[in-house]
Amino acid sequence: MNHGPAVVSSSADRMRRHRQRRRNGLRCLTIELRGTEIDALISKQLLLGCDRDDSIAIKRGLYEFLDGHLRA
Q: What is the C-alpha end-to-end distance of the chain, expressed in Å?
């Protein structure tokens, strides 16, 4: 009897991704940025001014900032 592919619940998928991040040594955080912090990313040329409301571009700029300052 074939029941088709198993359906993975969203909570099970979240847990799978959480465990994979842990194995990779990563942590997932939610942070709040002030407008002045976004302005700083722009002034450091890590973010384009036209992307100040684009959350993906802001993440990318913040990752670049952290990589440049925290990498050992």
A: 55
Euclidean distance between CA atoms 36 and 49, whole angstroms: 12
Q: Could you read off the pLDDT tens digit of each residue along the chain, which spans 72 residues?
A: 666 677 778 999 999 999 999 999 998 889 999 999 999 999 999 999 999 999 999 999 999 999 999 876
Which amino acid type is present at position 40?
A
DSSP 3-23: --SPPPPHHHHHHHHHHHHHH
Non-local (6+) Cβ contacts of 38 within 8 A are 47, 52, 58
